[in-house]
Amino acid sequence: MEKDESVFLLMTRIAPLSMMTIGGGLSIIGDLQRLSLEYGWFTAEGFNEIFALSRVAPGPATLVVTLIGWHVAGLAGAVAASLAIFLPSSLLTYGVARLWHSNRSAVWTKALAAGLAPIAAGLIISSTGVLLRDAAGQHLAWFVALVIAVLSWKTRSGPLSLLAAGGVLFLILRTILLESP
């Protein structure tokens, strides 16, 4: 596939996902992985690696899109993918924010906010399931994710400390299970 075709493909496949980032970029990770596998941009393991790399770097969860674009078509792909993921949702957000602020006390604003919250949560949980399905040590990864989710809910600890705790817990359990006879 030519570079121009790759750039066009990136833009046309990623731009619609921009409108699904309700609750943040993590809500579309499952779809990004599906696209990456469908078009042969990455293997499941390769996608998990690039996703992990994007999460280590500061910035939004959708930074992974820029890395996908770079991998597929170099600098032009990175720019095209970034514009495709950020521009449509940014324009929509701007328009909705103007409408929202001019109708702050309207009943529909409260109803819309209450209705979108479970959608955002569902999309994020779905994406987490896709990532855990392909994670190394799948069952152990699911167990650690569940433990950390419960700790998050019960303790209200910060996300960085929970992320660190989850990583340490996973490494300890994996070491113990791999060394068991």
From TrEMBL:
Bilayer-spanning residue ranges: 7-29, 63-87, 107-130, 136-153, 160-178
Chief subcellular location: membrane
Location of the protein in the cell: Cell membrane
Topology within the bilayer: Multi-pass membrane protein
Annotated InterPro entries: CHR_Transporter, Chromate_transpt
Key words, A-Z: Cell membrane, Membrane, Transmembrane, Transmembrane helix
Superkingdom to which the source organism belongs: Bacteria
Family to which the UniProt record says this protein belongs: Belongs to the chromate ion transporter (CHR) (TC 2.A.51) family.
Name recorded for this polypeptide: Chromate transporter
Organism whose genome encodes this protein: Pararhizobium capsulatum DSM 1112
